[in-house]
Design a protein that fits this description.
The chain is mostly helical. The chain has helices at 3-28, 30-49, 53-83, 89-121. Bound molecules: adenosine-5'-triphosphate (ATP). Adenosine-5'-triphosphate binds at residues 31, 73, 77, 87-88, 91-92, 95-96, 99. Belongs to the bacterial diacylglycerol kinase family.
Length: 122
């Protein structure tokens, strides 16, 4: 098998692992499940309000931002619990700042949502 074929096969396998990880997140993580429901509601609202292509891009980007950072937060929590299952101030600090990153993404998404939808309501 050529190096190129090996490269392509490796990338396809990598996509498979990534898809598996995304499905694990959606099946097992309550925060991601809530965000997925909000994403579906916002998508339905987008169709209902007939938002523009630019607004769709911003909304899709905001949804992806929040859900991907939540996934990374879950990863940080899992690593922290694996390397140090017991209570430790440093673990608490690590988990808090990872959660803080999700909070920043969520606030950003709310602001984007406000900028998109408030003009449609007035
Ligand atoms: N081992 C620990 N040592 C110190 N503090 C911890 C520890 N585990 C959790 N905490 C504290 O509890 C908070 C919640 O942690 P936890 O692992 O329960 O995440 P969570 O809120 O359930 O996150 P998510 O809802 O995203 O799964 C942390 O942000 C941290 O302040």
């Amino acid at each position: 098998m050529s190096n190129f074929s090996k490269f392509i096969l490796g990338r396809i396998r990598g996509c498979g692992y990534a898809l598996k990880g995304a499905l694990i997140l959606i099946k097992t993580e309550p925060s991601i499940q809530v965000q997925a429901v909000i994403a579906i509601i916002m998508t339905a609202l987008g169709f209902y309000m007939n938002i523009t292509a630019t607004e769709w891009i911003l909304q899709t980007f905001a949804i992806g931002l929040v859900m991907s950072i939540e996934g990374l937060n879950t990863t940080v929590e899992a690593i922290a619990d694996f390397i140090h299952p017991d209570f430790h101030n440093k673990i608490g600090f690590i988990k808090d700042i990872a959660a803080g990153a999700v909070f920043i993404a969520a606030i950003t998404a709310v602001i984007i949502g406000g900028i998109i939808y408030i003009p449609y309501l007035s």
